[in-house]
Amino acid sequence: MRRLLLALPFALLPLAVAHAAVEHDHDHEHGSLGAHEHGVGRLNAALDGQTLELELESPAMNLVGFEHAATSDADKAKVAAVRAQLDKPLALFNLPAAAKCTVAQQELESPLFGDEPDHDHDHDEDADGDEHHDEHSEIHAHYQFTCAAPGALKNLDLATLFKTFPATQKIQVQLISPSGQQGVEVTAKAPALKF
């Protein structure tokens, strides 16, 4: 039940963001929702008691450098390296040691990781070059931490994330913490936000 309550504000958030993006983009482009923008990632963060949840969504271009299916050995190696980096969230999110956080659960999803069902089987049928489903590959990472001393979580520092994935220029963060809810945009030059 608690997880559902944490997810509810995030479930409604994309509707508000999409509506604002349509209003904003209507004059600039042809009604694009702006949901998939290279260089821009999204992070939902929720701190409730000793539980910290982080959900990172990013165009694959920001993390891997491409969005097509990895076919060459170099591309496969790059995908494997990025997955290995994402598998170490304590280092990636630079959580303070004093908070004594441990990873309780983590999940990575992306068509590049082979997680998209039944889309790869028809690549040969698309001989005319129509591979629309590969155009906007994203990587989704969900982490749940248990923090023995959550009071030590004064801020969330994303500097390591920006250093590890330099093509990421900014991250739109939605944060729910005991002090309330906030929406912040962080960059490599200002990578931290307060809980």
TrEMBL record:
Sections of the chain in a coiled coil: none
Superkingdom of this protein's organism: Bacteria
Region spans: Disordered: 111-137
Signal as UniProt keyword: yes
Signal peptide: 1-20
Biased segments, Basic and acidic residues type: 116-137
Keywords of the record: Signal
Pfam families per record: ZrgA (PF10986)
Name by which UniProt lists this protein: Zinc-binding protein
